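Tokens as discussed.
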């Protein structure tokens, strides 16, 4: 008989397992003595990258109330992150800045992803904030040190503005999003809610000599043994700012994601026969 994991024995056991992981992360941070970004400052002058994403999206089979509550949760997280400065050698930690999302702090029940399924939970929707920060970082010389990809295609595109698969999961505090500033100058994250969008900017004091672009290639859907998968490759391009020459093209994602939503929502012209 296969032995069951302790966390699968019931809700209480799962909660105990989560608290154990939270404690392990806190102890790990104490041991490793990372220097985490926490200082705030006025706006830096140079925009490295800016982006905005729609907050409330009408997703098939998802309670709209959870999407609307997400706006409240994102607003609270904005207050913790906006203006933070990441100095050379410092590490940005999503959860070190945001803290534990609780009802007492004003967080509401929103959409969360658990065991590759959509469900609800307090603080749901904060992945969109982490996704925003990650997108800004991908378009910069900063170094990602912790990232947790969503493994499945959980819902169809709804006004998607970035390549598929470039998001990240977060769950307090052991599933974190972190990056390190290995450059020679400080950078700053500005983030706000405006006209129903989450808006973010990565700023620096001086311009960098390169700019970055992400491109998705060979995007399609494929049926394998009766199951559909979303397939594509995402490349990160490094471009000389002055000459416009392409200096580097790096494969950062090779997507092969199981489609978890209704197959009838897959565009027929994007299905490729194998």
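Sequence:
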């Amino acid at each position: 008989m296969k032995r069951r994991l302790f966390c699968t024995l019931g809700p209480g056991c799962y909660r105990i397992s989560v608290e154990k992981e939270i404690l392990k992360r806190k102890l790990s941070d104490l041991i490793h003595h990372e220097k985490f970004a926490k200082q705030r400052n006025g706006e830096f002058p140079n925009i490295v990258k800016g982006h905005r994403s729609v907050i409330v999206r009408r997703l098939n089979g998802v309670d709209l109330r959870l999407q609307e509550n997400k706006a409240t949760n994102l607003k609270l997280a904005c207050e913790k992150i906006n203006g933070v400065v990441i100095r050379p050698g410092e590490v940005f930690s999503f959860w070190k800045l945001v803290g534990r999302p609780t009802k007492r702090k004003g967080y509401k029940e929103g959409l969360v992803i658990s065991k590759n399924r959509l469900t609800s939970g307090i603080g749901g929707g904060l992945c969109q904030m982490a996704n925003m920060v990650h997108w800004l970082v991908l378009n910069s010389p900063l170094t990602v040190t912790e990232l947790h990809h969503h493994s499945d295609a959980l819902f169809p595109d709804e006004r998607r503005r970035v390549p598929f698969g470039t998001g990240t999961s977060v769950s307090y505090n052991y599933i974190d999003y972190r990056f390190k500033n290995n450059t020679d100058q400080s950078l700053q994250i500005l983030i706000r809610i405006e006209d129903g969008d989450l808006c973010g900017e990565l700023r620096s004091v001086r311009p960098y000599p390169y700019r970055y672009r992400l491109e998705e290639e060979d995007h399609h859907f494929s049926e394998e043994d009766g199951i559909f998968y979303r397939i594509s490759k995402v490349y990160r391009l490094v471009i000389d700012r002055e000459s416009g020459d392409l200096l580097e093209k790096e494969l950062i994602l090779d997507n092969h994601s199981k489609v978890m939503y209704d197959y009838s929502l897959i565009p027929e012209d994007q299905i490729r026969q194998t």
